[in-house]
Amino acid sequence: MITSPAHLAHDGLIEVMGGRALPCFEKPERISEIERALSETGTCRLLPPTEHGMGPITDVHDPDLVDLLLNVWSDGLASGATDGAAPLIPDTFLVGPLAAGGYGGSGTERPARLGAHCLDTATPIVAGTFAAALAAVNVALTAAELVLRGEALAYGLCRPPGHHAARAMYGGYCFFNNAAIVAEWMARKGAARVAVLDVDYHHGNGTQQIFWDRGDVLYVSLHADPARAFPYFSGHSEEAGAGAGKGFNHNFPLAARTAIEGYATALEQACSIVADFDPDAPLIVSLGFDTFDGDPIADLALTTHDYARVGSMIAALNRPTILLQEGGYAIEAIGANAVSFLSGFRSLAR
After folding, report:
1. pLDDT digits (tens, 9 = 90+) for 125-152
2. What does the domain layout of the chain look like in residue ranges?
3. What residues are annotated to the active site?
4. Is 131 or 18 the better-scoring residue by pLDDT?
5. Is the pLDDT of residue 3 over 50?
6. Taking residues 155-174, what's their average pLDDT?
7. pTM of the model
């Protein structure tokens, strides 16, 4: 289990949802509870990440996005856009006709430029955000290194999560796409077929966008139907990729209140696609526990016990696996859910 305390400074967050400012559902306690629960089992080693520099990030993300996230807080303080207590959240977004005018953004100062790179009003930036996002990438890459060195499984407790971050866009609580960065990192090390299996409640629009036209990275996602659930504009079943990537993107939208039997049916199909692809690199799993019945921002119906079955189904692929934490916002249950998933995974992996 790889984790970093840097995420603790990404705190004091608010988001705007339904026209109301609320305490952010994405909070440090999510990771702290998983750490506590897994440590109490006595079966997990807690390891720090190693530094990997900015190269793996800029291999995936647009330089303008990286520059923005690196500098926007200090620029916001200097310009008065924040007093240091309030987070930065965009209030103007570069969409539709405005974007069609050939906007380049070079004349717009960084805090005001947030809306050119942000998906929503739920992804606040504070003083510790960039360091936390960078640490999350290092957590993910360290997990990948451990598996490449021979570990059958490594669990990266990434916070912030990553799968909503696209090449030039952050949002959905995500700043850098941890799973996509690991996938690209392995491809550049020589892997010809890399698979990402996403079992978060929400569709990983960022991972899909980054690899949309590539055939060397398979993306398979189970998630709430975007007809009703964030991110709304991606994750439909007909989205299959384009060009060289056509047929290498698979979405399984799920109805509200989907319970374990329906979920397992979709997961079995997803795992079959991964097996047929036959990746020559470790499997990357974007692991979310917001599929839990009782998650405050979701509507599927998995129980804590069900995660053992989910874990065992993924373990049945019999592949070295990198688990990267995505969502899960029922703080009181997230630790038990992680323990259940790992117990199921390990029981079959033995």
Report:
1. 999 999 999 999 999 999 999 999 999 9
2. 5-55+126-349
3. 164
4. 131
5. yes
6. 97
7. 0.96
Q: If 0-12 CB within 10 Å is exposed, 13-18 middle and 19+ buried, where does residue 44 land?
A: middle
Q: Please identify which residue in the block is written with the tokens 């979405």.
A: 251
Assign a CATH topology to domain 5-55+126-349.
Arginase; Chain A (3.40.800)
Which residues does 350 contact at the CB level (< 8 Å), separation at least 6?
none
Cα 310 to Cα 303: distance, rounded to the nearest angstrom? 11
- Alpha-carbon distances, residue 26 vs 284, 329, 330 (angstroms): 22, 7, 10
